[in-house]
């Protein structure tokens, strides 16, 4: 079992920045690839970014490429999502998730463990 707890969400103006954190506990953190997903009201959950178990492989959704950066610190069992140039359409609940697919994935069904989510709201 892996427990994931997100933090760092909040209200920010368009063009601003936020850094989300996701702290893991339980089984060996470095055994898992991590991903960030988000879900806006009335929409399906969508992929944001993923990072492999050792951080060597990273993928982003086209909608956030160049604005968001995913990283991980295996010594702290934490994954981060640095978000910049935020837009109102980035407003959503952001979830981190862990998968045994060690290179990471954009497919939510491949993730075994999920956090409870943190709200990000971007205002005009």
Explain this structure.
With 124 residues, this protein is mainly β. Helix content is 0%, strand content 51%. It has no helices and eleven strands. The chain has strands spanning 2-7, 10-13, 18-26, 33-39, 46-51, 58-60, 68-73, 78-83, 92-99, 113-114, 118-123. The strands form two sheets. Strands 2, 4, 5, 6, 9, 10 and 11 form a seven-stranded mixed sheet that branches. It is globular. It starts with a strand and ends with a strand.
Kindly list the characteristics that best describe this protein:
mainly beta, 124 residues, 51% strand, seven-stranded mixed beta sheet, 11 strands
Strand content: over 45%
Spans of 5+ residues with little confidence (pLDDT < 50)?
none
- The Rg value, from CA coordinates, equals 13 Å
- Number of helical segments with 4 or more residues: 0
Measured between the Cα atoms of the first and last residue, the distance is: 40 Å
Q: Tell me, briefly, the overall form.
A: globular
* Helix and strand pattern: EEEEEEEEEEE
Residue share in helices? under 10%
Strand elements, count: 11
What value does the average pLDDT take? Answer: 96
Outline the biggest β-sheet.
7 strands, mixed
Structural class: mainly beta
């Amino acid at each position: 079992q892996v427990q994931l707890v997100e933090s760092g969400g909040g209200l920010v103006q368009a063009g601003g920045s936020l850094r989300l954190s996701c702290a893991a506990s339980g089984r060996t953190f470095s055994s898992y690839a991590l991903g960030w997903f988000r879900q806006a009201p009335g929409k399906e959950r969508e992929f944001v970014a993923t990072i492999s178990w050792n951080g060597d492989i990273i993928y982003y959704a086209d909608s956030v490429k160049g604005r968001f950066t995913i990283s991980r610190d295996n010594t702290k069992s934490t994954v981060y999502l640095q978000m910049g140039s935020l837009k109102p359409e980035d407003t959503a609940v952001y979830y981190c998730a862990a998968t045994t697919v060690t290179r990471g994935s954009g497919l939510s069904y491949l993730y075994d463990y999920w956090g409870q989510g943190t709200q990000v709201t971007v205002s005009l």
